[in-house]
Amino acid sequence: MTMPTDGVPITGSVLAWARAESGLSQSELADSLRVDADEVESWERGTALPRRGNFSKLAKVLDRPTAVFFLPEPPADSTVPTSFRNAPGLSDHRLGKDEIRWIRRSRRLQDLLSWIQRDSGSEPVALPVAAPGRTPETFAHEIRELLAVLVEAQLDWDHASDAFRRWRSALEDVGVAVLQLSLGKEGIRGFSAWDDFAPLVAVNTAYHPTARIFTLFHEVGHLLRRNDAACLQFVRPAGAEAGIERWCERLSASFLMPSGALAEVASRYGVTPAAPVPDVRTARLISQRFHVSARAGSLRLQELGLAPQGFYGRVEKELAALDRNKGGGGGGGSPAAPEKRLGEVGTRTASILIEASTRQRLSWLDLADHLRLTVNQLDDLQSLLADAS
Question: Are residue 36 and residue 141 in the same domain, yes or no?
Answer without folding.
Answer: no
